[in-house]
């Protein structure tokens, strides 16, 4: 047996979503093609994102999708890989955005440091929320995270001096990025896209490492069967907390990037509707799949962009389409693609 | 109350039984559990000798599963203590039991359904060695995979390792669950009705496996079917209406008048 063949063939490796009860029984083995894709998932994802701006209507939208994709990716660590449905991830996206924005506006920090500051703030919020919420399970977990995130929302809403309150945080102007030996003009949408992609790429790579690690294996075991995982000797509560905090950190990084991209942090970033958006994107793309979050983010952003030009009631149509997906494509778009390829013996 | 008499009878049999195998691997002292006002189990003092198979038997509602859950740490007792190798482990968090060397298989099939058979056992073996490693790859621990494959061979699933666990037949899933439990390298293995819902064929295979496993470790199993365990186990513990009715060798139990009355439904 070669060393490669010894890599445990987890169902997830090819990205097949595992948790949806509605998932149809597929054939057992992952074909060679999908196994190969699973091993090179980071390279393939980045290759796609590199050419992505050429297939979107305009490049600011591509940056939006990139940021939302990272947000959905972070959310998916908890939802798709650990089996925890949180309704409070807006607090992390918002925490990252405000942390980054405040660092730039109030303290004049370098954008790179501001990204770190935003991520750290989100991580801190996630740690506090996680400690409180992780004691509960199922619907109670979802409700607790929702309530706690609204507490965070209200705190940021009231702290007008720092956050701009209802008007949002304005004036996050980052026209260019000075790096050692390099000056990037962020007003050029193409440059901006690739600058954001560089950060997202690192996050995607770290995320993949995490999933392949023993810790990632333990998270899957918890998702599959919490009681059994505990009986095996895993400290389930602590592991869920660590997953929650890492998930919050990834979403915080997405928020920080969004603050720089939009140069404003609307207070709605923290609203629970934004948490719902993470759930929608993960389900549209395919929960528990590696690439699904980006597919979900692209679908959501393109739908919103396309429908908003046609009607002010675009949310109604996005909602209807979302319901259709849950009913008829429970695996999500990418999940369905993978399931079909798998059935075809790829 | 009918149950008053058996309680009085219980302590009399206890000293005889504990003297059999030297120091007990597991012992309970006055173990009891209440759910609200319902007393599921009360004052069970019993010792399990090291090695061989001890079966916990009793009719439906006797408190077998409650007792199993207390000694396997699924929930804490309302009163009394559980001692493992003389150490008080009452109230230890569930995940500590596997680390101490106590593994269990559940009454209802309890595997990781969407993981492959191999990964089911590998991740269980991993729990003992590496838990929070975030940046290494799972495949950096080939000994865990080797161990998983060896265990799967032992329980007769060597040819099914690449399937998803949920695709296995019921009997195979039970065997897989035992392999998962064994991955913790337990010195004490607790099995809750390992043959529940099995065909006669599967039951025979499972009992053969149980017997083989007991050669190198201590087994405690809860079993509903008394006949099944009589030929296998060294000792029996009989529960009835949440209390200890009797304990001893299969011959002692067969001859025990109270057991014959309440469990076998025969008049003494």
UniProtKB/TrEMBL annotation, chain A:
CDD domains: TM_PBP1_LivM_like (cd06581). Coiled coil: none annotated. InterPro entries: ABC_transp_permease, LivM-like. The chain crosses the membrane at residues 86-107, 113-132, 139-157, 193-211, 241-260, 280-302, 314-334. Its main location: membrane. It is a multi-pass membrane protein. Keywords: Cell membrane, Membrane, Transmembrane, Transmembrane helix. This is Branched-chain amino acid ABC transporter permease. The lineage of its organism: Bacteria, Pseudomonadati, Pseudomonadota, Alphaproteobacteria, Hyphomicrobiales. It is found in: Cell membrane.
Automatic annotation (TrEMBL), chain B:
CDD domains: ABC_Mj1267_LivG_branched. Keywords: ATP-binding, Nucleotide-binding, Transport. Residues 26-266 form the ABC transporter domain. It comes from Methylobacterium longum. InterPro entries: AAA+_ATPase, ABC_AA/LPS_Transport, ABC_transporter-like_ATP-bd, ABC_transporter-like_CS, BCA_ABC_TP_C, P-loop_NTPase. One of its GO terms (molecular function) is ATP binding. This is ABC transporter ATP-binding protein. SUPFAM superfamilies: P-loop containing nucleoside triphosphate hydrolases. The keyword Nucleotidyltransferase does not apply. Belongs to the ABC transporter superfamily.
């Amino acid at each position: 047996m070669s060393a490669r063949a010894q890599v445990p063939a987890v169902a997830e490796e090819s990205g097949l979503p595992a948790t949806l009860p509605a998932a149809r029984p597929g054939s057992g083995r992952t074909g060679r093609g999908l196994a190969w894709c699973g091993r090179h998932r980071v390279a393939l994802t980045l290759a796609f994102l590199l050419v992505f701006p050429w297939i979107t209507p305009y490049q600011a939208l591509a940056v939006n999708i990139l940021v939302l994709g990272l947000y959905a990716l972070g959310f998916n660590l908890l939802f798709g890989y650990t089996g925890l449905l949180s309704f409070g991830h807006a607090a992390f996206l918002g925490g990252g955005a405000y942390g980054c924005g405040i660092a730039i506006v109030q303290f004049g920090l370098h954008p790179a440091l501001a990204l770190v500051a935003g991520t750290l703030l989100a991580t801190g919020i996630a740690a506090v929320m996680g400690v409180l919420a992780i004691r509960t399970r199922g619907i109670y977990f979802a409700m607790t995270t929702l309530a706690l995130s609204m507490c965070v929302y209200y705190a940021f809403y009231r702290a007008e001096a720092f956050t701009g309150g209802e008007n949002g945080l304005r004036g996050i102007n980052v026209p260019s990025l000075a790096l050692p030996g390099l000056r990037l003009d962020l007003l050029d949408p193409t440059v901006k896209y690739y600058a954001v992609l560089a950060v997202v790429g690192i996050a995607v790579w770290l995320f993949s490492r995490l999933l392949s690690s023993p810790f990632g294996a333990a998270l899957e075991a918890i998702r599959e069967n919490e009681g059994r995982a505990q009986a095996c000797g895993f400290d389930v509560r602590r592991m869920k907390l660590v997953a929650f905090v890492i998930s919050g950190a990834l979403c915080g990084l997405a928020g920080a990037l969004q603050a720089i991209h939009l140069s404003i942090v609307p207070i709605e970033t923290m609203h629970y509707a934004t948490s719902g958006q993470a759930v929608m994107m993960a389900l549209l793309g395919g929960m528990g799949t590696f690439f699904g979050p980006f597919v979900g983010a692209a679908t959501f952003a393109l739908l919103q962009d396309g429908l908003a030009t046609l009607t002010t009631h675009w949310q109604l149509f996005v909602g209807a389409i979302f319901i259709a997906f849950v009913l008829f494509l429970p695996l999500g778009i990418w999940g369905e693609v993978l399931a079909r390829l798998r059935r075809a013996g790829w | 109350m009918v149950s008053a008499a058996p309680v009085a009878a219980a302590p009399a049999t206890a000293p005889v039984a504990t003297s059999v195998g030297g120091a007990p691997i597991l012992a309970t002292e006055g173990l009891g559990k209440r759910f609200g006002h319902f007393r599921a189990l009360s004052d069970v003092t019993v010792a399990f000798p090291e090695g061989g198979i001890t079966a916990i038997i009793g009719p439906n509602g006797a408190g077998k599963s409650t007792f199993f859950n207390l000694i396997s740490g699924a929930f804490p007792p309302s009163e009394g203590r559980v001692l493992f190798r003389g150490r008080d482990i009452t109230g230890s968090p569930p995940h500590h039991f596997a680390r101490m060397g106590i593994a269990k298989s559940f009454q209802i099939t309890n595997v990781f359904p969407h993981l492959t058979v191999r990964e089911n056992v590998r991740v269980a073996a991993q729990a003992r060695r590496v838990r929070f490693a975030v940046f290494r790859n799972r495949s950096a621990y080939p000994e865990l995979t080797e161990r998983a494959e060896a265990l799967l061979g032992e329980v007769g699933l060597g040819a099914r390792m690449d399937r998803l666990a949920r695709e296995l037949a019921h009997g195979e899933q039970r065997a897989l669950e035992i392999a998962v439990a064994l991955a913790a390298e337990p010195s004490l293995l607790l099995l809750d009705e390992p043959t529940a819902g099995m065909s006669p064929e599967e039951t025979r295979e499972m009992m053969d496996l149980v017997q083989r496993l007991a050669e190198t470790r201590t087994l405690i199993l809860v079993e509903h079917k008394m006949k099944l365990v009589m030929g296998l186990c060294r000792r029996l513990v009989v529960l009835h209406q949440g209390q200890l009715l009797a304990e001893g060798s299969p011959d002692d139990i067969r001859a025990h008048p109270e057991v014959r009355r309440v469990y076998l439904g025969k008049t003494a």
